[in-house]
Amino acid sequence: MSTSTKSASPPDVHDPPGPTPAKVPSSRTSWRRALRRDWQLYSLALLPLLFFLVFRYLPMLGNVIAFRRFQPGGSIFGEQWVGLRYVEMFLNDPTFWQVFRNTLWIGGLTLVFCFPIPIVLALLLNEVRRSSLKRFVQSVSYLPHFLSIVIVAGITMQMLATDGPINHVLGWFGHDPIRFIQEPEWFRTIYVGSEIWQTAGWGTILYLAALTTIDEDLYEAARIDGANRWQQIWHVTLPGIRPTMITLLILNIGTFLAVGFEKVLLLYNALTYPTADVISTYVYRTGVESNSFSYAAAIGLFEAIIGLFLIVSANQLSRRTVGTSLW
Description:
Elements: H1 27-37, H2 39-44, H3 46-57, E1 68-69, E2 80-81, H4 85-91, H5 94-114, H6 116-127, H7 131-142, H8 149-159, H9 165-172, H10 187-211, H11 216-224, H12 229-240, H13 242-254, H14 261-267, H15 273-276, H16 279-289, H17 293-321
Antiparallel strand pairs: 1-2
Helix pairs in contact: 4-17, 5-10, 6-10, 7-10, 8-14, 11-12, 13-17, 16-17
């Protein structure tokens, strides 16, 4: 008895088409969409970008006169190519190297003293529990920042004058008056002291803002482990504000040679040139007062290159050691 069997139909080799994958928009398309959607926000950045373009990037074209002879009234890019003549001039100028050493001294002292003091002040204010006392200290410490450099220099010179309050106090103890403003050895102390007074309070703002981002649970865990206040500051607070500290340190190192031109110009005089004259004031006297614009441009370009090298080196060192960097 034979039974007939039906052959199974072969499977369909053509599967029904699945859903079509979504098309990934290109970066140019997504940028246009974001610009149309948030054009109000992008328009806010227009004026700052124009400011940097006009006052920061376009003036860089003038650095070409460091290699060309420039004469007032002639071409803005110089009259004749002279190569590295002006670079060789300031490298062989003993006055420039004296000015360079003064810049290193004042910049180094400013970095050593002015950088950590805002951190210490922010930590102290963070420990104050009375809000009225905290607001009073903040207001008093912030106030000098809002004074112009001319007023700060005037107050400093009046306080340190031969017949000023400080010399009056020294006279009560039988000390002869000291000519602070005329003595070269006092200039660096005066400059750094006035810089601390003017910038310490304002510099605490960023650190106080960084302190508010630290999780309170970390302090609670540290207290459970038996940590006292100093140990909490060392193991919780300082690591919490370390990215802010590193960022500001890198920025300060980048402007290491750009010592405050206005304050030095207002405080120094011919008697204090041996310790007070820095690169920025030397460039001003050489370029503006002596009309040696090409020579001054060469010195300014040298200063800018060193500043770029310092900020790049500090950024790389920070990235490799602590893992925090600007880029």
